[in-house]
Specification:
It comes from Vibrio diazotrophicus. With about 210 residues, the chain is α+β, with helices and mostly antiparallel strands. The protein has helices spanning about 45-50, 60-65, 70-80, 90-105, 110-115, 150-165, 195-205, and strands at about 5-10, 15, 35-40, 40-45, 125, 135-140, 145, 170, 180, 185, 190. The protein has a three-stranded antiparallel sheet, with no helix packed on it. Strands 2-5 form a two-stranded parallel ribbon. Helix 4 crosses helix 5 and helix 4 (about 90-105) packs across helix 6 (about 150-165).
Length: about 210
């Protein structure tokens, strides 16, 4: 997806999201309530996971990003290091985002799949004031334009959910790209069962 793939959207007829507390806010990577576990490491959002994947050669930066409870804070922690992003970031960022969304789905199946299916028949659009790549920006009343890369990846995932059974989505293979690592370790296959780590930790917060 490149800038020449810009499209226009009438936000009155689409599943649009900007704030996480809105109807379709759970589609945002900034939404809470969608924790994931990768390589045994619990993290509060796929935004944190996505940002950490920028810096496979900087495990200390990854640790700081993944330690954040807020998705926005996780993004901000990585911002000062943006120039140190993996050199092929522009080429792999879409693949990594697609993988992150699959992880979010695998480990939050009921909530996330139902939310995506509720948008059937509508285009999904992330609204933004300044990001015309991942989202779409206002150009006139109710009309937004942009590549809307995140929205298009979500629509692609929605169509796959319609086509395939649940079992197809409960494991996610690692990407076949160089240096796909967390804390210096290769990222392994992700499973819905990995998310049980979070549930066990939550149960341990309430001793008998």
């Amino acid at each position: 997806m490149h800038q020449e793939n810009t499209r226009q959207y009438d936000i009155r007829t689409v599943a649009a999201f900007k704030k996480t507390n809105e109807k379709w806010g759970g589609l945002s990577n900034m939404a809470g309530g969608f924790p994931v576990v990768v390589n045994g490491l619990p993290m509060q959002s796929v935004e944190a996971l996505y940002q950490a994947c920028r810096f496979p050669h900087l495990p200390e930066v990854q640790k700081k990003i993944l330690a954040q409870s807020s998705p926005m804070t996780a993004k901000m922690v990585g911002k000062p290091h943006k120039r140190q992003s993996r050199p092929d970031w522009e080429q792999v960022q879409i693949l990594i985002m697609k993988w992150c969304l699959r992880v979010k789905l695998a480990q939050n199946w009921e909530t996330f799949s139902n939310l995506l299916l509720d948008t059937r028949g509508m285009q999904i659009v992330e609204l933004s004031n300044k990001d015309g790549f991942w989202g779409a920006k206002p150009v006139e009343d109710n009309i937004y334009a942009g590549v809307n890369a995140l929205g298009r990846l979500l629509m692609e995932l929605r169509e796959q959910i319609i086509l395939y059974k649940k079992e197809h989505f409960l494991t996610v293979a690692p990407l076949n790209i160089p240096h796909f690592t967390l804390y210096g370790q290769d990222i392994k296959e992700v499973s819905y069962q990995d998310s049980l780590i979070i549930e066990i930790k939550q149960l341990n917060m309430f001793p008998e």
